[in-house]
Amino acid sequence: MKIYISDQISKQIRTNLPKDNVTYLNSSSITKADLKEIQVAWGYDHHVQSLLDTPHHQLKWIQSFSAGIDYFPKQQLTDQKITLTNTSGVHSEAIANTVLLYALYFMRDMNLALNMHRQKQWDGSRHYEELTLLSNKKWLIFGTGHIGQEIAREAKALGGYTTGVNHSGHAATNFDDTVADNAYSNIIQDADIIINILPLTPETTHMFDHQFFNQLEHLYLFINVGRGPSVDTSALMQALDDGHVKHAALDVFEEEPLTSDSPLWDYPQVLITPHNSAVSSEMLPGVQDVFIHNLQTFLKDGHPNTNIVDLTRGY
Question: D-isomer specific 2-hydroxyacid dehydrogenase NAD-binding domain location, by residue (predicted)?
Fold first, then answer.
């Protein structure tokens, strides 16, 4: 059986893959003839797209390197009955750690501390009016899957109260409370921190728009570690200008990379990271484990069984 591995998968991972009755191909070894024989692809690039566009190909399953799958041609995969699996759960701890960093950065006024450090200034009195604690803060988390549950666990460990938003309002591990996605307006004013970790779907595109931010009066911190297009950037900037949102921490953006002329860079109350909240040195073994487990199941049963994406729902 032939398996294509995109270049985004490191050589470190490739060395530990099962080798019996399997031929692994990459961008430098794949040929036109291979396109009709590959059954599995790990990652997504122009070679995988060429494979999808090849008549009478044998591709049955694609394993994504990431949890988000909005960049995949979902309709084409649906039409061709190709299974897509992701790495949901692998990145949860790294993202949750990053979210806590964002919160602590502003609550401990590290922005001012770093500015004074650069200027070689010592003035502890300038901090007092801004310094606050994580304990007793109310977290409103949009998304109650693996990532949301890990954020809630870590927030609660530091004394936070966590409310999760999901489609039906069903209970979720580590959350003190949950509400349906059509009922959060009743509690949004009480939140200190709002976090988006939702996947990108037609329903979540520009979900955080002018109407959403206008419901807020004095939100302490808005965080986006979900998908950039879920947030209307102009609406967020207006909310920052109007004082509806005091701080924002953004790891994802409507257009990436964020251009140097983006007005977001000029907001001192905005913390920007380059879409790396999910990254850690421990990530690669977890990504590999998901693929190897699914590959072993595929070799045995003809299909993977873990982290299967619902292409209709988009996650």
Answer: 102-276
pTM passes above 0.85: yes
Establish if 311 belongs to a structural domain.
Answer: no
Q: Is 197 a member of any domain?
A: yes
* 30 and 139 assigned to the same domain: no
DSSP string, 227-243: -GGGB-HHHHHHHHHHT
Sorted by sequence, the CB contacts under 8 Å of residue 86 that are 6+ apart come out as 63, 64, 66, 67, 68, 69, 307, 309
- Shared-domain flag, residues 177 and 119: yes
Query: What's the rounded Cα separation, in Å, for the pair 31 and 33?
Result: 5
Say how far apart CA 44 and CA 7 lie, in whole Å: 9
Secondary structure (3-state) at 262: coil
Residues 225-252: b if buried by 16+ CB within 10 A, e if exposed: bbbbbbbbbebbbebbeeebbbbbbbbb
Total structural domains in the chain? Answer: 2
Cβ burial, residue 135 (10 Å; 0-12/13-18/19+): exposed
Q: Which two tokens stand for residue 280?
A: 């850690």
In whole angstroms, give the CA distance from residue 43 to residue 291.
10
Two structure tokens written together for 104: 């602590």
- pLDDT tens by residue, 124-141: 887 777 899 999 999 999
Other CB atoms within a 10 A radius of the CB of residue 282 amount to 10
